[in-house]
């Protein structure tokens, strides 16, 4: 059955984005509640909610489904409050950890854990977007007590928002996210703090860092209000992932001690193959992607001018990244396009505008 009335509890970036996407998908009425009245007011101004409710009860009393989008540390309390406030409402959440929450909820027939694997470096309802969930995996954690019609209702909403609903056991979810999300965040902080704590013969490593350190540590220092809760809530699984990571570091150390070039070659080759598998999830033809690297000055309008010029020639940009060197030296813009012919066409267009351009395969074959 189609969902008609939705309630959102917590109108930050994710909650407000759910509201916008739900309205676009045809949900008739979206009510919202937030302990922060300013956030709720912005969500209402953006059109993410039709009713800015003054209480939790008012937000959920007529809803068929309620989505709790509050911080991880508050989820158990807020989910319980929503289940109590709405006698017949189906309840889900959008938290990054699932095990403890799902195990602690008493009404397991009406609550189904959820986690959309998406987000933005921006915060707050002012940055909400109806397109945030397009193509994103949205984990759902039904259990044996889950009423099938409630799961179908939630599954249908998630799919209508443009996401891909994937059922998973709550504990398996936390093991998976510990490896694919929480461990990378932890290691990014470790690596960057390591580099930032040293001086080597008077040189500061951060001042001499190249693209590798920047790329590897992009997520370092992420919002501590969010990540402290995630690390602590999933501490057991994160510790297990760190222990396995430590074992693999020790393997590398042994290979270096014994100067085992064969092991290193196999190790790098395995990583190349795994990276290719990772990229194949994002790109339809990894082998055909070409990197068009352009040296750009540091001045307003340069990036928009390049993207508009390529777009005017119907050259599709699959992805791009900018490595900034300094205000004086500018940086390197790397644009990914599909196919060598398109890459050469892009290079000729940019060279005609006076840019220095290098074309190369985006990813080496494993």
How does this structure look, described?
This protein has three domains: 164 residues, Rossmann fold; 87 residues, Orthogonal Bundle (6-phosphogluconate dehydrogenase C-terminal fold), CATH 1.10.3660.10; 76 residues, ACT domain (Alpha-Beta Plaits, 2-Layer Sandwich). The chain contains 13 helices and twelve strands. It is of the alpha/beta class and 366 residues long. The longest helix is centred in the middle third of the chain and has 27 residues. 32% of the residues are buried. Helix 7 packs across helix 10. Helices cover 46% and strands 18% of the residues.
How many structural units, i.e. domains? 3
CATH architecture of the largest domain: 3-Layer(aba) Sandwich
Distance between the termini: 47 Å
CATH topology group of the largest domain: Rossmann fold
Query: Which structural class best describes the helix and strand composition?
Result: alpha/beta
Can you give the mean pLDDT? 93
Instruction: Provide the β-strand percentage band.
Output: 15-25%
Question: What is the N-to-C order of secondary-structure elements (H for helix, E for strand)?
Answer: EHEHEHEHEHEEHEHHHHHEHEEHE
- The rounded Rg comes to 24 Å
Strand order of the largest sheet: 3-2-1-4-5-6-7-8
Give me the count of strands.
Answer: 12
Helix proportion range = 40-55%
Q: Flag low-confidence runs.
A: none
CATH class of the largest domain: Alpha Beta
Task: Write out the CATH superfamily name of the largest domain.
Answer: NAD(P)-binding Rossmann-like Domain
Described by strand count, sense and barrel closure, the largest sheet is:
8 strands, mixed
Count helical runs.
13
**What is the overall shape?**
globular
